[in-house]
């Protein structure tokens, strides 16, 4: 039960913050490797959050190019935030430019089951997904791009060359304590929104078990489970120092029977038998937390 719970927490996507399913919710990091959009001119007046185009696609100066992540060569995604809002998540989904030839299909054998006689190439996608909070006038780079079929794999240049952007999904902080979501279609060049009123950015659990934990010092907390005997949440906008401080605060709360403690994970129990498990991603500045009672 505990292992299943923690695995589910680690698989969480920032998409859940606004109650929407983004392409795949992958953890980790446009049209051509040299693609870059110029930021729109400043109007002098900050746009209101919740409009279908509060953040415009040309305000997120993005590109995809070959790079190296953790010693592995792959296609990587980067962008500069020239909008008026802090971006919570920016995802671009790519699709094949047209019907693939038999020779081109061979480039995607790493994401399809070799035992299947016929592959469904209509499911073939590529995703660039940054879940790191990027503040106004800040940027992020070295975000892995992923190819999806029956499986997922790191995207390569020869695969990317056959793709074009389809839909962008943008989740942003409105400056009013809420998160908003909008979509941009590259084909129709139109915007839509699914969260006019926004949703609460800091959603701290309310059950008694939450009192055994300190509150993270960050802009976004999403609670995925809040029960009497177990809870789980994800905190976004946590740097390495913030992670270390949170571990120390948890120890002060009584979680001193330590099973393990690393730069990216922590597990400990308190005297009441409650088990705390924490996973941390420096790349996404994201902390996944769960507590359960034996």
**Number of helices, counting only DSSP H or I runs of 4 residues or more:** 4
Compute the gyration radius: what is it? 20 Å
Total number of strands: 16
Q: Which percent band covers the strand fraction? A: 35-45%
Structural class: mainly beta
List SSEs in N-to-C order.
HEEEHEEEHEEEEEEHEEEE
Sequence stretches where pLDDT stays below 50 over 5 or more residues: 1-43
What is the straight-line distance between the termini? 10 Å
Shape: globular
Q: Bin the helical content.
A: 10-25%
List the helices and strands and how they pair.
Blueprint: H1 2-10, E1 60-69, E2 72-81, E3 86-96, H2 102-105, E4 125-130, E5 139-148, E6 152-154, H3 157-160, E7 163-173, E8 178-185, E9 190-193, E10 199-200, E11 220-226, E12 230-236, H4 240-252, E13 257-261, E14 265-269, E15 274-281, E16 286-293
Antiparallel strand pairs: 1-2, 2-5, 3-4, 3-7, 4-5, 5-6, 7-8, 8-9, 8-10, 11-12, 12-16, 13-14, 14-15, 15-16
Verbal overview:
The protein has 4 helices and 16 strands. The strands form 2 sheets. Strands 1, 2, 3, 4, 5, 6, 7, 8, 9 and 10 form a 10-stranded antiparallel sheet that branches. It has a 6-stranded antiparallel sheet with strand order 11-12-16-15-14-13, with helices on one face. The protein has helices spanning 2-10, 102-105, 157-160, 240-252, and strands at residues 60-69, 72-81, 86-96, 125-130, 139-148, 152-154, 163-173, 178-185, 190-193, 199-200, 220-226, 230-236, 257-261, 265-269, 274-281, 286-293. The relative contact order is 0.17. The radius of gyration is 20 Å and the shape is globular.
């Amino acid at each position: 039960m505990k292992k299943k719970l923690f695995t589910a927490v680690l698989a969480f996507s920032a998409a859940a913050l606004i109650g929407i399913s983004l392409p795949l919710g992958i953890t980790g990091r446009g049209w051509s490797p040299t693609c870059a959009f110029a930021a729109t001119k400043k109007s002098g007046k900050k746009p209101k959050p919740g409009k279908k185009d509060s953040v415009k696609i040309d305000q997120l100066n993005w590109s995809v190019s070959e790079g190296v992540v953790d010693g592995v060569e792959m296609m990587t995604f980067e962008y500069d935030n020239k909008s008026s809002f802090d971006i919570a998540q920016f995802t671009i989904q790519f699709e094949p430019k047209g019907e693939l030839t038999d020779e081109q299909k061979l480039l995607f054998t790493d994401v399809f089951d070799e035992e299947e006689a016929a592959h469904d190439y209509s499911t073939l996608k590529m995703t660039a997904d940054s879940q790191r909070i990027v503040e106004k006038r800040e940027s992020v780079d070295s975000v892995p791009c992923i190819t999806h079929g029956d499986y997922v794999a790191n995207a390569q240049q020869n695969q990317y060359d056959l793709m074009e952007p389809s839909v962008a999904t943008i989740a942003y902080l409105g400056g009013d304590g809420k998160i908003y979501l909008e979509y941009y279609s590259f084909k129709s060049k139109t915007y839509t929104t699914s969260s006019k009123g926004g949703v609460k950015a800091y959603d701290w659990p309310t059950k008694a078990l939450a009192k055994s934990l300190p509150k993270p010092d960050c802009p976004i907390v999403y609670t995925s489970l809040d029960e009497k005997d177990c809870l789980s949440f994800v905190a976004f906008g946590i740097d390495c120092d913030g992670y270390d401080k949170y571990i120390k605060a948890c120890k002060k709360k009584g979680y001193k029977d330590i099973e393990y403690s690393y730069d990216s994970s922590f597990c400990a129990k308190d005297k009441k038998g409650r088990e705390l498990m924490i996973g941390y991603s420096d790349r996404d500045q994201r902390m996944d937390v769960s507590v359960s009672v034996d």
